From TrEMBL:
InterPro entries: EXOV (IPR019190), PDDEXK-like_dom_sf (IPR011604)
Organism: Rhizophagus clarus
GO biological process, one term: interstrand cross-link repair
N-terminal signal peptide: none
Assigned GO CC terms: mitochondrion; nucleus
Name this protein carries in UniProt: Exonuclease V
Gene3D superfamilies in the cross-refs: 3.90.320.10
Length: 407
């Protein structure tokens, strides 16, 4: 069995030089924390593409017919659903589904209607830099997935070995994280978690000498990497980035507290926790996990390993980091640090949850932030913007009438 699994891994890492395959795979097995899996969807892609196309066409109809009283019943039904049901099938919300509303709620709402944001060159470059950073920390192994249970098995696998990597490499990247916000299931991927020592009794200009007396504990620092076209960092982190990092911390710390309700997760996502993984995924788990940790290879047992891993770590630092890279050459521009604010996060989440549950409409930006409209794809048809323009025109007319009346 071991030989068959080993040969299979050799094929998966075929992109590396053949002469180095044995050495590389030996390292993969000896240093389990370095293995990260990337899913290749082997389901019927044509069917999915057709479904996405129909969804996009329906979204366009909603946009075009919003002001028409003779709207077809299927579009009316879509409009009556909550955004959570309409755009996420009442299942997984993403961390960015919350944080992006801090930029502009209507822009995010229109993007959901249109089927997603249009990928810009800057976004492509940013994604490439994230991939490069991840490849520096982990060996990426691509693996086919045949079921949704396989896909979630890979997420849990990457979470397990991401936590292990903290204790061996003192750092991990692209760490999956999940939990419930209110009763909504939320998933995200943390750019980086790093374990750093904390030193006590050290004044600002003193020579730093590391010893057992001044190390009190290690802190887990959550950071997010952002890319810029300009060779300097902003004066402060945008609110959307702050809420993104604060929500990462909230989800991570709740997993540390052991508040995982695995049955609720399986029910929410409509997953069969007892369905065995495909042979490809099962083979890698057999090599990487201890036999005593997991017997039947399915989501239920892999989730138990996740719970055990989080018993070994502690809550993350209240100091959160935003690191900036220059897109041109990936050079480091520096970092901005800020403190976690639980009250601020909870108030923001309560407001955003009301939108996702359909209890309120999306709002436009404050008038002082109207500069954001300049680069918005939806500016020409934005209800908030058009109403503001109408209000300004009415005020101008009223002022003109008053002025003429005085003359």
């Amino acid at each position: 069995m071991f030989t068959r699994c080993f040969n299979y891994l050799c094929k998966l890492v075929g992109s590396r030089d053949n002469n180095n395959n044995i050495t590389n795979l030996t390292n993969l097995i000896n240093n389990k924390e370095c293995i990260k899996l990337r899913a290749i969807d082997m389901t019927n892609k044509k069917k999915n593409s057709k479904k996405n196309l129909l969804k996009f066409k329906l979204a366009r109809k909603i946009m075009e017919l919003r002001t028409n009283s003779n709207v077809p019943s299927d579009i009316k039904n879509q409009e009556e659903k909550s955004p959570h049901e309409r755009f996420r099938d009442s299942k997984t919300l993403f961390v960015t589904d919350f944080s992006s509303f801090a930029w502009c709620e209507l822009q995010q709402h229109y993007s959901l209607i249109a089927g997603g944001r249009k990928e810009t060159l800057a976004m492509k470059n940013g994604s490439e830099i994230h991939k490069n950073l991840e490849s520096q920390e982990h060996v990426i192994v691509q693996i086919p997935t045949y079921t949704r249970e396989d896909s979630w098995g890979i997420k849990l696998y990457n979470l397990i070995f991401g936590i292990d990597s903290l204790f061996t490499n003192y750092k991990t990247r692209e760490l999956p994280i999940f939990g419930f916000v209110s009763d909504l299931f939320v998933f995200g991927i943390i750019d980086q978690v790093e374990m750093k020592p904390v030193f006590d009794d050290i004044s600002g200009d003193e020579l730093l000498i590391i010893s057992d007396t001044n190390i009190s504990r290690d802190e887990l620092i959550i950071s997010d990497t952002k890319t810029r076209t300009k060779p300097y960092i902003p004066k402060k982190a945008p609110p959307s980035v702050k809420f993104q990092l604060m929500l990462y911390k909230k989800l991570f710390d709740e997993l540390v507290q052991g508040t995982i309700d695995d049955e609720k997760i399986f029910q929410t996502l409509d997953l069969n926790p007892d369905l065995e993984f495909s042979n490809e995924l099962a083979n890698i788990i057999k090599i990487s996990c201890k036999e005593s940790e997991i017997k039947e290879l399915n989501l239920r047992n892999l989730m138990k390993v996740v719970i055990n891993r989080f018993r070994k770590v502690w809550k993350t630092s209240n100091v959160l980091e935003v690191n900036y890279k220059l897109q041109k050459d990936e050079s480091d521009l520096g970092s901005i640090y800020f403190d976690y604010n639980e009250n601020q996060l909870e108030n923001y989440l309560k407001k955003t949850i009301k939108y996702w549950k359909g209890d309120r409409k999306p709002e436009g930006v404050p008038i002082e932030d109207a500069w954001k409209c300049q680069n918005c794809d939806f500016a020409d048809n934005c209800e908030w913007r058009l109403n503001k323009i109408k209000e300004c025109e009415q005020k101008k007319r009223a002022f003109k009438e008053i002025t003429n009346g005085q003359h």
